[in-house]
Write the structure tokens for this entry.
Amino acid sequence: MDSIIDPRALFTLNYGVYIVSTEYQGRKNGQIINALMQLTADPICMAACLHRDNFTTELVEKSGRFTVSVLEESVPLQFIGQFGFRCGRDFDKFSACAFETGEDGLPFVTEHALACMELEVISVQEIFTHKLFTARVLSAKVLKEGVPLTYANYHFIKKGKSPANAPTAVFNKIK
Ligand SMILES: Cc1cc2nc3c(=O)[nH]c(=O)nc-3n(C[C@H](O)[C@H](O)[C@H](O)COP(=O)(O)O)c2cc1C
């Protein structure tokens, strides 16, 4: 079956690059995600797919809430690295970045971010290695005008890699 899946076909799918953040019992954390999309308009719901081993996943499941920050195209690779290649279990990611606290008390990254939203989890489904969170948007605001970073430009312009826990990690092998 695997032999008939050409990963280059999957690479033609479009995504953005975001930070999903949350807080549980005073512990803030966040991670980079590309597997995120809007599902419905009324009410506005979204889906986010997080690896089951990630610290963010554990905290989102416990808190039942998370925020999304939409990253701008000019975001430095090093900034993405802090949220996308390091685990928050042994490093306080929020000690080294600008953030604000939403109405629900959750942190959202404001540095290199164009917009942010707060969400409430409505379901969690196990998808093999990942957990799929569907969530309802509680608030959303624009932080500044700019060009959002696409996943394609993260790879083609910024020459970024995907870590093992990203659903799209296979793309590292075909570039
Ligand atoms: C460009 C990019 C896209 C990523 N997309 C996802 C994703 O969609 N889902 C996921 O679980 N991890 C994704 N990751 C990996 C996580 O951000 C990474 O495993 C992170 O270190 C987890 O941190 P945590 O353990 O503190 O939660 C991505 C990373 C990068 C750099």
The chain has a mean pLDDT of 94. Residues 17, 29, 31-35, 49-51, 54-56, 80, 84-88, 154, 160, 162-163, 165-167 surround flavin mononucleotide (CB under 6 Å). The domain at 14-166 is CATH 2.30.110.10 (Pnp Oxidase; Chain A). The radius of gyration is 15 Å.
